[in-house]
Amino acid sequence: MTLQQLRYVISVAESGSITEAAKQLFISQPSLSKAIKEIEKEQGMQLFQRGRSGVILTTDGREFAGYARQVLQQMENLENRFFDEGPKKINFGVSTQHYTFAENAFVEMVKRFGEERYEFFFNETGTHRILEDVRNRVSNLGILYLSEENASVLEAEIEEYGLVFTPLFMAKAHVFLQSEHPLAGRKSIRLEELEPYPRVNFVQGNYESPFYSEEILSTVPSAKEIKVNDRGAIVRFMIGLDAYTISSGIFPRYLHRDRIIAVPLEVEQQMQIGYLTVKNHRLDDLETAYIEEVLKYRP
User: Fold this and answer.
1) Is the pTM of this model over 0.90?
2) Quick check: is 101 in a domain?
């Protein structure tokens, strides 16, 4: 097994396409396909499932890719430490649900630790992908929430993936809507008052279920639903369609000049915001600094 073979596996896993990975690696698609088959034969296991839409890691493949990333990362650290003339390159990654505070905390962490050489990774993505990223060591930390609705399912999957969820703070459910919305003047909003308006949720791909939803109370049916994969689209739909979404209430006003507001929702359920790590992991300085920045946004 060579480092180049490990790079082949990681590139295919991250792109989800042998053709795209071949472009990134500057080799032909047949050569990469042959290389992957040789690796699978050498290891005696199938690493990828192939289909019309691309390739995905098998269960064995996910475990293999996790260790492969660690090997490549350690090799890069070794090169940075002993063979590069410049300062050591630092690495850090976060995968998170679509939270502005998670993005802002990342900016502040980079300001504190962005030395001459670094490679930082920030992935605003779906819930299941966050679990995958942390398990496969793509990201050091994963930011998401648990609630009465999703805890039973997500806690079981977190355990199965060999991860640990550490709570940071509790956040009350809020309705996000435009400042000129018919309900904008309320001190609080009841769920039944939202029924005439479109509800916007983030797309979860193959895991489109209330248990993976980024929006609390997704088990409550809505007659009008719009699913998006971009935070900017949610804002446009709020302004143009009187749509709404439900989240934590943590939303810096400077982003949209008071066009979007958060109104408390009259429900008892709350969001427990926290972070994921692999089991038995001790936070390093960058991870600790990032968590400290996130905590600055707690309600």
Assistant:
1) no
2) no
Question: CA 252, 258, 259, 261 torsion: positive or negative?
Answer: positive
- What the block records as the tokens of 53 is 């839409």
Residues of the chain with pLDDT under 70: 77-89, 114-116, 251-257
Is the sign of the CA dihedral 138, 144, 150, 156 positive or negative?
positive
CATH code: domain of residue 74 = 1.10.10.10
Q: DSSP label at 140?
A: S
Q: Which two tokens stand for residue 227?
A: 């699913």
CA-derived radius of gyration, the chain: 21
- Among 22, 57, 80, identify where a domain stops: 80
Indicate left, alpha or beta for 280 from its phi (over 0: left) and psi (-120 to 50: alpha). Answer: left
Distance in angstroms (rounded) separating the CA atoms of residues 21 and 168: 37
Angle value at C-alpha 274, between 273 and 276, nearest 5 degrees: 145
For residues 39 and 35, what is the distance between their CA atoms, to the nearest angstrom?
6
Domain end position, chosen among 63, 80, 97 = 80
Contact between 123 and 171 under an 8 Å Cβ cutoff? The reply is no
Specify the number of domains making up the chain.
2
- In which domain, by residue range, is 76 found? 1-80
Q: Pull the structure tokens for residue 220.
A: 């409550």
Q: Is 78 exposed, middle or buried (0-12, 13-18, 19+ CB in 10 A)?
A: exposed
- Burial of residue 59 (number of CB atoms within 10 Å: 0-12, 13-18, 19+): exposed
Cβ burial of 105 (10 Å; 0-12, 13-18, 19+) is: buried
Residue 187 belongs to a domain with what CATH number? 3.40.190.10
**For the segment 59-93, what is each residue's pLDDT rounded down to a tens digit?**
888 888 888 888 887 777 666 656 655 556 678 89
Helical spans, DSSP H, in 53-197:
59-82, 100-113, 127-135, 151-160
3-state secondary structure of 126: coil
